[in-house]
UniProtKB/TrEMBL annotation:
Belongs to the transcription factor STAT family. This is Signal transducer and activator of transcription. Its main location: cytoplasm. CDD domains: SH2_STAT4, STAT4_CCD, STAT4_DBD. InterPro entries: p53-like_TF_DNA-bd_sf, SH2, SH2_dom_sf, STAT, STAT4_CC, STAT4_DBD, STAT4_SH2, STAT_linker. PROSITE patterns: SH2. One of its GO terms (biological process) is regulation of apoptotic process. It comes from Podargus strigoides (Tawny frogmouth).
Amino acid sequence: MSQWSQVQQLEIKFLEQVDQFYDDNFPMEIRHLLAQWIEGQDWEAASNNEAMATILLQNLLIQVDEQLDRVSQEKNLLLIHNLKRIRKLLQGKYHGNPMHIAVIISNCLREERRILAAASMPVQGPLEKSLQNSVVSERQRNVEHKVSAIKNSAQMTDQDVKYLEDLQEEFDFRYKTIQSLEQNDKNSALIKQEMLALQAMLNTLDYKRKEVLSKIGRVIHEIDMLMSNMLTEELLDWKRRQQIACIGGPLHGGLDQLQNCFTLLAESLFQVRRQLEKLDELLTRLTYDGDPIPLQRPQLLEKVNFLLYNLFRNSFVVERQPCMPTHPQRPMVLKTLIQFTVKLRLLIKLPELNYQIRVKATIDNSVLHSNRRFVLCGTHVKAMNMDESANGSLSVEFRHLQPKEMKSSAGSKGNEGPHMVTEELHSISFETQVCLYGLTINLETSSLPVVMISNVSQLPNAWASIIWYNLSTNDPQNLSFFNNPPAATLSQLLEVLSWQFSSYVGRGLNSEQLNMLAEKLMGQQVSYNDYQLSWAKFCKEHLPGKSFTFWVWLEAILDLIKKHILPLWIDGYVMGFVSKEKERILLKDKTPGTFLLRFSESNLGGITFTWVDQLENGDVTFHSVEPYNKGRLSALPFADILRDYKVIMADNVPENPLKYLYPDIPKDKAFGKHYSCQPNEVSKPSDGGGKGYVPSVFIPVSKILNDSTDPHSPSDLLPMSPSVYAVLREHLSPTVIETAVCCKLFHS
């Protein structure tokens, strides 16, 4: 079943999450119509390779054209119209930047996998639950409602100012008229009547001035309250959601909504500023004793300018955190002399600012207790514009920055251990200046803390540091965090570990798998809901009796899945995280030949399988092969190993003991689609091979030793074709075959 088919079967609450990340950047119609083709392409690789991305974009447009031809024959007018619009949209947006659509599609597929993994969990994790709090959603709606109300109030006040201007013009006219009449007859009844009318008009004018100033004051107060409370909380929540998304959590949305709120508030403040300028203009033409304009206008204008300064400063955000294109699922880990990308946005989207704001990027080297210093190479000054972003936001993306370590006379490179390097936090700082309508505002912002590495071998521990930091704190700039790293709640850490699997290898962990990881971290029979785990136990201390840490063990498993058993993992056929004790409990009552797949606890990046068997006396026995590592799996696909695996029992008769994948799935039903070729497709000896050779394949063969005193030697793979092996069984004695087989099996 395709991934998209699985998505369509989700509950409505999960479908609503899917709906949030499909928009004009990548329309859902295309995802639906081209589901199989889209899932068959390597979008992640294309997001780092412009040539590959260009080809994929061209092929995508060809696929859309083929769909257009199909629906044209069906005379589906609505779908024809939508597909033509979408094709034009895709070509226009991504023709000059094909890698951008590769990033978007890769992120969408990744988020689908995360949601599918979340849907399979019995309960929602604590972190994800907090991000989807109904109180937060209600506040979002309240912010949008209040911003709209403020915009309407500011526009209504415009009408009041216009009425005040008209009223003052009428007063000026009548006043000048009376002045001309006074020269002829100052004591006439007409003059006295006009003076009384003029005084009444002045009283009305004074009342309207006070009323306008009061309305302006209320608008300013409402903006102040909104910015100080709900809008600030919304921005902080978005930044927290971004932190969680960076370590594999749900994709963070809401920035476009925040941009809309910030922009409307800025427009309202500038509108109020123009109203105050108009009042100043009216003041120069008419003033009087007790005039409210000179008394109130300066304070109101000062408050408006103060709010504009704060609004602009808060609107300058890092939209996409620093990330090496070669490691899209490991953001904030930067390798020296390797390019990384980072994107910034100004949430106040005003046409007057297009190409007017130049942003400068630097590295913050104010790290305590470190002699390492870095500079940025590449284009580190760029102008913000509305043309490069697919959604038309006012943003700038740095794509060619490289960190370079400066030589230090203190010789810090040689004095710092691997953990010191990967626990050392830096940040990328950005500064710019906005000049608009007589205001000059200096803006600064910084990325989340990054880890600088000089060798790719440091990447796993560096990523562990990024996980721990963003899990444990919402402080965006605590560069001394690892001087005294806090403990993390184990329940939240396990949720984040599941995200590592859903984002990196397409399928998260279920509760049983997470329980096994909890036991590995804490020991058995301990409730871990409120358990606090230290940083050292997670990443620095070796596991009991092992020469590696928990994180190194887990990272090796992720690498194994990604490179060698990914389809089997995504299908859910690898139980993986199960202890030897639990394994035997699960298998003991099953049909002989039932097996399961689990990751080795003693070998880094190893996978093994264990099956249950029954002795003649009725006793149950278990057999586990020595773990297969990436070296052996590079030579032979794991699915083929399961298909062709043979054991030689005591009577020297080779057979495949693997019949049913736990709990009762026939082996070929589970793994058949992943076999590289079917046994009957292998050439027979009489067929001949290239240059007269018989084609050969590797067949894994083991011998069960009943004598437990015999040493366990590494399993070998015997190179021969299935047909040749059958011929050997017919013409060679079991003793000869036994001599040729040196692969032995762990017996328990």
